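Tutorial handout. Part one gives the primary structure; part two gives the three-dimensional structure as tokens.
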Amino acid sequence: WITWPLALRVATDGVCAGVSFPSPNQLFGELTADISGVAYDDDPWRVERLVWPVLDVIDNSLGEPWAAPLRTHVTGSDGGGRPGRRLRLARTVAALCDRYGVERPSLIRDWRAGHDSDGAGGSVPPACAWQPVLWRLVAARLDVPAPPERTPQVLAVLRDDPGRVDLPERLSILGATRLPAAHLELARSLAEHRDVHLWLPDPSPTRWAEIAATHPTPPIPRRRVSPLPTLTD
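Part two.
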């Protein structure tokens, strides 16, 4: 759909070709990789790579007191074991680590500093106390800081040395219904020296104006309960 109006309205010959449309996640991931010096495809914090160190930590920690929820999840309440749960659990935890870094980057920074926060001004609930412990053990196995820990360097470069980034002077984000906290941080810094346009779905301009006029300054959590999921047997 995007290439069609570009071909009709922008291109002089009616053809739009050789144009890439990366997702915000890919764009900001590659941007962070370029500035921090960690190749995007080789980043050990990408979910598909993170699964394996997470699995190794789980296997080596099931006997620890803090890992009781993991042990129960893997072996079952009867202790008989559940084939396949180890890898599924590792994939779930790796995806959670990635999501936390994008949705609540301050949570990851707090965990690195030894503070078991939930990233929203509170503490990790007791049922989720295993998560920051496991994250620190995984982080200790990797020689690359997590993406949220690299973000301050990336933001500084975007603000103070914008020419270092190979991006056009105008950027458009099309069709996003929401942007997570990490992406908003990067978009704000990009916008200091570039035109950044958000093309948002807008079924009702009147309703949108009402929301903008009444929306409070602090973000509203999508749900009032803790965002950190717990394990069930």
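Part three, for discussion. The CA atoms of residues 101 and 147 lie 7 Å apart. The two ends are 45 Å apart (CA to CA).
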